[in-house]
């Protein structure tokens, strides 16, 4: 774990001596990666948690699912927000930390400064009198990487990490996605037991049966043991990251257990939905006229959903909020459209398809589906949409001024101000303000008649004389000023 750009991926790459596949959209790592290496007859699994700020909950989960956290801090930088967050997650999960002070090859590297800053966050490394191992590394030259591996072995010996492979297997879903050909796939980090093809399991309260197991290179394998992170096929539905995968002894019990769990889950959801609605109603009452942009997120993986969700939640304003009414992995379905219609929500499709029948249904029910494959673009677009919901600022612009010279009466219309335009133009559709001796008489009045001589005209330019009649005004005096203005709507931006 560590702040973005401090070198997590590079260290991992160096360790694996391979390259991470390029082509991440928007520069954001979209998948949690898990890689296993063999080191001195030990298998070590690394879980890469993104350092980008959008991934708080992934880091929290990363800390929870591991035995050891390696905190990467660049020696040419400081202890940064995501470093602190990683420290907090590791503490909360009560997982021991090993510090890798990286980029020590750089001339500007200042190892002592990093150690001092870490001590300020209660991370006391060994040569600062603490118990935490700290290794100086360079992913560029390879310096210290061996030492880091040794530190991991040492730590795990102290922790005496053991797992039973003979019991019912249990694991945690660290990523999931919907594959066009294969259906739901989840990366499962096995915590105990042996995950085998054919075993029945429950995950996210849905029954399943392991159909295939694949390693990180997509090779099909027969089984997986504790600390293996493997891709598993055989889910009924796409599970969510953080879901517990649990083998069930008897396949015949599967349905019963799943049904019971789903019933409980529905009850919980039902009660929270009610509560949320009440909450939002009371908030609306409090805030007056609240506009909300309701969003349904459909995406290719849990990672994308989280990245999007967390970025969207940042789009906030006193008057306008973004509400994610539903999120899920997979293509946009007709039930998403139904929900969109019911909740007046826009559907955001990230890296997923909308089948033509669903699109047709969406068109008919006026539900907008917006497709993206770059997170940044989706966030920018929604920001603009939210800005659209902000009531515009109204700014007055004066377009012309006339001075009244005399008054006269015309049958049917009434009194007319014989005036001369002194600046700008007076137009028939201008808003009008009448000022007498510096005192405003009428504002937002409308012109009911604008004439040059006997003819109705639409504009009168500077210097010309004209006859103006203003709605609601019966009397004009010489010297009165007639100010024509318009109201400009200025789009407001989220700060
Ligand atoms: P991550 O966001 O923490 O995964 O960081 P990356 O591994 O993507 O590294 C960010 C940048 O720092 C890349 O340009 C790397 O080439 C560079 N980098 C990483 N480790 C080192 C190092 O030890 N020395 C030097 N000089 N550059 C490094």
Summarize this structure briefly.
This protein is of the alpha+beta class.
Describe the structure.
The chain has ten helices and 27 strands. The protein is an alpha+beta fold. The chain folds into four domains: about 10-160, 3-Layer(aba) Sandwich (Rossmann fold), CATH 3.40.50.300; about 170-260, Beta Barrel (Elongation Factor Tu (Ef-tu), domain 3); about 290-390, Rossmann fold (3-Layer(aba) Sandwich), CATH 3.40.50.10050; about 395-490, Elongation Factor Tu (Ef-tu), domain 3, CATH 2.40.30.10. A six-stranded antiparallel beta barrel has the order 6-7-13-10-9-14. Helix 2 runs parallel beside helix 3 (about 80-90), helix 7 runs parallel beside helix 10 and helix 8 (about 335-345) runs parallel beside helix 9 (about 355-365). The chain is elongated and about 105 Å long. Residues about 20-30 and about 270-285 have low confidence and may be disordered. Bound molecules: guanosine-5'-diphosphate. Guanosine-5'-diphosphate (GDP) binds near residues 2 and 139.
> Major sheet, described briefly?
6 strands, antiparallel, barrel
Distance N to C terminus: 31 Å
Q: What small-molecule ligands were found?
A: guanosine-5'-diphosphate
Oligomer: single chain
The beta-strand count equals 27
What is the name of the CATH class of the largest domain?
Alpha Beta
The dominant shape is elongated
What fraction strand?
Answer: 35-45%
Number of separate helices: 10
**Class from secondary-structure proportions:** alpha+beta
Q: How many structurally independent domains? A: 4
Rounded to an integer in angstroms, the radius of gyration calculated over CA atoms is 33 Å
| Helix residue percentage | 25-40%
* Average pLDDT score: 82
